Amino acid sequence: MSAPGFDPPARFVSTRYQGSKQRSFDLFERALRPLCFESAVDLFGGTGAVSWLFKSWGKRVHFNDCLRWCAEVGTALVENAATRLDPARAEELLVPLAGRRYDDFVARTFGGRFFLPEEDRFIDVVAQNVAAEPDRHARALGFYALFQACLKKRPFNLFHRANLAVRLRDVPRSFGNKATWESPFERLFLEALAEANEAVFDNGQDNTVSCLDALACPLEADLVYLDPPYVRRDGAAFDYLDGYHFLEGLVEYDRWGERIDRRYKHLPFARRPSPFSSGAALHEALREIVARAKSARYVAVSYRDDGIPSIEQIEQMLRGEGRSVVRFSRSVSYALSHRKGAEVVLVGERGASVSPGRRRRVAPENRRR
Ligand SMILES: C[S@@+](CC[C@H](N)C(=O)[O-])C[C@H]1O[C@@H](n2cnc3c(N)ncnc32)[C@H](O)[C@@H]1O
User: Fold this and answer.
1) The ligand 1 atom nearest the CA atom of 21
2) At the N or C end, where does the chain have fewer CB atoms within 10 A?
3) From the centroid of its chain, how far is CA 353?
4) Can you give the pLDDT at residue 320?
């Protein structure tokens, strides 16, 4: 049962993450809100946008993502029901604590790659202060603010290239935001924290977080939501660990050095083999997950209409597991590639026969008034 009387905040935080569904809430309102479910697993949680939306609908949510930094974001915004990190405490996290010895791993390792020298030193201090924060939810909020401040300072909001020079070059450009790049880190941190504090709420449910490979995560819920990495038609896939390795390192600060692959200039984490990095393997991995989710009443899949597998293949996969399928979509333009396409949500309902004109059952409390 949804908790009576809770009042969700009006907005989710603004994230800067490839594939974040924060702009797709209208699509989910149409596709998923009318469904009859009490609990959900968000298996590829990312920024937690979809988990947070489910939470705002009063559902019991489990957020999962294989990246530790994403799990921190899920902890701050989904699991966390009440903790806020007040600005006075936050200010203390931004300066060295008297008498404490600090490692300078970022300054020593990444000098000149992503940030200015004083920014590297700032990140070193804040990462260690936040990690020492004893309260799990306050710590996660601190990490969230640090991640966002770092992302905002990066060309394309990514760490896939050692391209600090792009930020510093004094030329007109069609991307990025020079004013944000020049804002002090402290201000970006405090702004991000204020947004996150506002997004915290209690929906009366015990919402949880895990950091597991999707193929190993339990799927016991009424609705299993899948938003896997997208593989393009030409077979190329965005590698999330490569794009965001620096944020993963902030959470694994003490072991960061062991994880780096020094053959590359941007010093990413050593690659892990992943079934979500090629079309054929993704197809098989999705099939395995859909089969494993057999006790869930609904399996919902977000994907783009120009990827591998195709939308029709994913529909077939859901039907092959005895589910009826309804397709929802919205058109989108992709800023970096200047392309237009459609974002699709497929809803596969177990054992429901779909007759024309009666596409799905709608719980009475969710019927539109
Ligand atoms: C398209 S994004 C999800 C975006 C998310 N729905 C949101 O709104 O922010 C895909 C996510 O899958 C995660 N991921 C990639 N491989 C994974 C795996 N093997 N197991 C679990 N998560 C994985 C990535 O870290 C990334 O956050």
Assistant:
1) 8
2) C
3) 33
4) 97
Phi, psi of 76 (to 5 degrees): -70, -40
Q: Please state, in angstroms and rounded to a whole number, the distance separating the CA atoms of residues 225 and 202.
A: 21
Cβ–Cβ under 8 Å, residues 245 and 315: no
CA of 349 to the centre of ligand 1 (A): 23
Atom number, ligand 1, closest to the C-alpha of residue 275: 19
Each residue of 242-296: pLDDT tens digit?
999 999 999 999 999 999 999 999 999 998 888 888 878 999 999 999 999 999 9
pLDDT tens digits, one per residue of 11-62: 999 988 999 999 999 999 999 999 999 999 999 999 999 999 999 999 999 9
Cα 101 from Cα 263, distance rounded (Å) = 30
Span from the CA of 170 to the centroid of ligand 1 (angstroms) = 35
**CATH class of the 15-67+204-238+276-369 domain in this structure:** alpha beta
- The segment(s) of the chain belonging to CATH 3.40.50.150 are 15-67+204-238+276-369
pTM assigned to the model: 0.92
Distance 15 CA to ligand 1 centre (A): 14
Between the two ends of the chain, the Cα-to-Cα distance in Å is: 20
Task: Give the rounded percent of residues in the chain with a pLDDT score beyond 90.
Answer: 78
Distance 44 CA to ligand 1 centre (A): 4
